[in-house]
Amino acid sequence: MNEETEKGRQSRKEAIEAQAALRRERAAEKLRENLSKRKQQVRARQSGQADETDGLPAAKPAAAKMDES
């Protein structure tokens, strides 16, 4: 095997590993965000406050008013 081919394989392997690390970082961040939202929802329910999540567009009051028309 020649030296250039080996370098090319190592380079591709490093690029794949870097992409995998970025994916793991993004997934971990999304999980932290999701956990934070869920904790906020639980706290709101325990204190009797309304749930202020975005939710589905059909569940919003403006959409309900349009259905009544």
- Main β-sheet: number of strands, strand sense, barrel status? none
Number of strands: 0
Structural class: mainly alpha
Order of helices and strands: HH
Number of helices: 2
Q: CA-to-CA gap between the ends? A: 75 Å
Write up this protein.
With 69 residues, the chain is an all-alpha fold. It is 77% helix and 0% strand. The chain has helices spanning 3-47, 61-68. The mean pLDDT is 80.
List keywords for this structure.
mainly alpha, 69 residues, 0% strand, 2 helices
Summarize the structure.
With about 70 residues, the protein is an all-alpha fold. The protein is built from two helices and no strands.
Write the layout of secondary structure elements.
Layout: H1 3-47, H2 61-68
